[in-house]
Amino acid sequence: MRSIFNVAATVLGLTSTLATASPAAKRGLPLADGFPNPNPTQLKQIQQNALGTLPNGPPPSNISSDGLVSLRLVAANELFEVAFFSDLLNNVTQNVKGYEIAGNNRDLVIKSLTAVLAQEELHALNANNALAHFNAGPIQPCKYKFPVSDFNSSIKLAATFTSLVLGTLQDVIKIFAERGDVPLTVGVASVVGQEGEQEGWYRLLQGKVPSELPFLTTSTREFAFNALNQNFIVPGSCPNINTIKLTAFQPLTLLSQPMAKTEPIQFSFQKPATGTDNLKLVYINQQKVPIVEDITVVKTVGSTVTIQATFPYDANEMNGLTIAAVVGGSGPFQSAQDVASATKFGPALIIIN
Description:
Immunoglobulin-like; Late sexual development protein; Ferritin; 8 helices; single chain; signal; alpha+beta
């Protein structure tokens, strides 16, 4: 397939790089196939489009409170992805300006997006069905905003949030295991593989090597929740997102786009009442111990603080997804969760290669 988007470094400080793009027309939820509440006939068609079915094994009889948090986050993220891929598929099939695809490639793209959309619908239904089984109530759809303007920017965005999902599901599996929710780990692990297959396709469409890293970057539930809430959800539009008991951070905006080399890069955030003296920038990349860097305040304009910090690519081979966060204190941070627990502003997401 001809490469449709090829860059040396893809950067998503979501509120920066894509902020100037105009959101494409959105159809929203519910979908024509009945999602998120399909009847049996509609569900059968969704499963046919997904090339497979919902799991039908017996669910566990109980779950930890932390396990419910994870299920709610998974459901919320999957609902967003359903809305995103529904819009993308509609824009391609309707030949919306910027989404035209010529030749035989168009048929494969439509076939692939149809499967991806249906597979994400099943992921969301599976999570909400589990919540219903535990008498916790399903997560309801929000209204969403997508900072994209054409097919290329849509695939770039899909690749970035899928990388974050792949990191976050590592955390979900770990927490399930630690809290005694081991029966739930197998289904989530199967989704990790499925999302990885998607990610490889999105990377191929950008002219990249399909496998991003030998060991994918880890993340946490908090970083996924804040990326979703800050960048894609219309404020005040979620009926029950308040049931996801995770810490909300202030946004961190990436201002300069790093390349595959060590260099200073800039971020901005809203001036904290406590000042900036105790703040550090931390990078999470691959399965390495988090990297702590000093920050320099470049300027303060009104309530917006611009900082600069080194992006230490050369010493750390920082390819793939890097999660950046501004934290209180200098650590040491032994894990992504340690970083999340100290985060004040974030995440900003960087993808190189």
